[in-house]
Amino acid sequence: MDGIVLLKDDHKLVERLFKEFEKTRDTASPGEKKTLVKSILRELVTHAFIEETIFYPAARAEVPQTDDHVLESVEEHHVVAWLLSELQDLDPSDETFDAKTTVLIENVRHHVEEEEKEWFPQVRKALGRNRLVELGEQMSAAKSHAPADPLALRSAKS
Ligand SMILES: [Fe+2]
Ligand SMILES: [Fe+2]
Predict the structure, then answer these.
(1) Which of 151, 33, 3 has its CA nearest to residue 102?
(2) Which of 45, 51, 77, 95 lies at a 20 to 30 A Cα distance from 148?
(3) How far apart are CA 73 and CA 11, in angstroms?
(4) Closest CA relative to residue 44, chosen from 157, 132, 155, 158
(5) Angle in degrees, CA 11, 12, 16, rounded to 5
(6) How many angstroms separate the alpha carbon of residue 72 from the centre of ligand 1?
(7) What is the per-residue pLDDT for 158?
(8) CB under 8 Å to 90, separation ≥6 — which residues?
(9) Distances (CA, A) of 15 to 24, 109, 124
(10) E strand or H helix at 11, and its extent?
(11) What 3-state class would DSSP assign to 91?
(12) What is the DSSP letter of 147?
């Protein structure tokens, strides 16, 4: 699969989970909320992992004119990783839980918009279909090696 299509599919999946959180935040039980946020955490950490280990380094090396996008994206991942690490240990009945999750969602939406609207089209043009399929295969295989802990992401330390 084309790597950019794979990443956009991931974006769509997390957006569905975000919508689910927004729809149920006032009615869900703490247990349901915890389960949903756990799914969000797992999807985001896996996605950030394959971007940081495969897609971002490839873009950096092969499309150097988008360097600023790579650097900004890593900083955005950094913020998301730390928010996720706080949410991981937070009781869903804590008064900060919904607020932190909402800020997480806002951050990720902004980040996804920049990736999809500004950066990915330039990468697509520069890399071409065959290279993107190669990256897609690598990323798809790398998903099973993703860490569970958001602070194990490279961006958490950047
Ligand atoms: Fe990203
Ligand atoms: Fe992404």
Answers:
(1) 33
(2) 95
(3) 14
(4) 155
(5) 115
(6) 10
(7) 79
(8) 96, 97, 100
(9) 14, 8, 22
(10) helix 3-24
(11) coil
(12) -
The boundaries of the domain holding residue 58 are: 3-157
pLDDT in tens, 5-21: 999 999 999 999 999 99
In the reported structure, the alpha carbon of residue 11 is separated from the centroid of ligand 2 by a whole-number distance in angstroms of: 6
Task: Find the ligand nearest to 77 CA.
Answer: 1
Whether this model's pTM surpasses 0.85: yes
Task: Please state, in angstroms and rounded to a whole number, the distance separating the CA atoms of residues 26 and 22.
Answer: 8
- Work out the burial of residue 67: count CB atoms within 10 Å of its CB; fewer than 13 is exposed, 13-18 middle, 19 or more buried: exposed
* Ligand 1 centroid distance, CA of 115 (Å): 7
Sign of the dihedral through C-alpha 147, 136, 62, 70:
negative
CA 80 to chain centre: 8
Task: Give the chain's domain count.
Answer: 1
Query: Tokens standing for 88?
Result: 């991981």
Q: How far is residue 60's CA from residue 56's CA, in Å, rounded to a whole number?
A: 6
